[in-house]
Amino acid sequence: MRQTVIRVAGLGKRYRIDQGMRQTALRNLIGDALRAPARLLTGSGRPSNNGPSAASPTPNAAPDTGTPVAENGRSRFIWALKDVNFEVRQGEVVGLIGRNGAGKSTLLKILARITRPTEGHAEIHGRVGSLLEVGTGFHGELSGRENVYMSGAILGMRKAEIDRKFDEIVAFSEVERFLDTPLKHYSSGMQMRLAFAVAAHLEPEILLVDEVLAVGDASFQKKCLGKMSDVARRGRTIVFVSHNMAALRKLCPRAVLIEDGRIVENGDSDEVVSHYLQRSLDTQLETVWNDPQTAPGDHRVRLRSVRLIPQNGPDDPITVHTPLRIEFAYWNYVPDTVLNVSMILNNVEEVCVFASFSDFSPRPAGLIRHTVTIPGDFLNADSYYVNMIVVKDASVGILFQNNVVGFEVVEGEIVGNWYGRTPGATRPKLRWETEVTAARDLTVTTDLSA
Asked: What is the dihedral of CA 157, 160, 161, 164, to 10 degrees?
């Protein structure tokens, strides 16, 4: 049996947000120290009963966002993680999923020993490489070359080991031209490329990867996912946080779902991802903005409503055979402007099923309504949501609104003996022709000696 390399027991992380607290940056600490003698002479240095001094760091304090939160003038505590328990065995590839703010990144930071837990503990057995935020572990004043060697040294590697991997790291990151340029001049995408190349090629026994792949372009994301698959095949352990459900399903046999800092599901990635996506999607067949003053938009256009109208009526399930009409309405305030609506239909895995556009014509001032029909026997059984854009002059988007309606399509009657899910985002009913040619002349022989 493979040994356990990550063991998390009763893990909790609590942040305290204090009223009036401000960042204790170095310049603030120095300034407070210089002003302290003057405050003592004037009597203003006496301790206050209203809370900690600005120069005193508060344990477990969350970063100052500029909008402190307090209740009745007293500090309150927020649990980013609470009573988290799970294990990861050597060679496992585990995906962490959940909404933004669920606690996924906090958990990875604890595993990477960047932050301490408030309660419980996390045991890590093995050399850890982490890619949590763009630029984490790098120094902006050092060149790309120097940062590669520094990162390897932090992982406990000898210079000779880093030398053997160096050319491979540079080739993968595609930043060879800028290798001797200070990192502070790199774009976020370039930093991410180099950081991932270092983390993946210096062969840590445990690799922690957060949603930083979203910074890169599509081709490099594909390259990174391929590299992680290669790392996994070599028996390394990977914990992967991503909102790309298709990539996570492909890479991770197991997934852990976190909600409000707690683990609510842990098991087969296909099942956990499906449950998460279903819980995340709100079925909403109509969105209406009655007040033009507060509706999405500006002085040019404002939304009025978006409605999804099933042909079989709103009370019956939408099946794969049900034709659908989607109606978009908006107020146009600038006469004779060429406007159209672009509709993007996504499935619950955030895959674009298709995009469609209304006609391009000058619109009079007033309420404009566009309707598009999705025929029956076109969509597959799945959950969907609609994003829309109002476009000016067939080229400039002037109003963007996501998740205007959401709906679920279910199976119709079962045909034959197939009870599984048909693959694909769409399932169009196409015309098939079958022809049998010279069946009476066909003879079948069997060679029993084979």
From this structure: 150
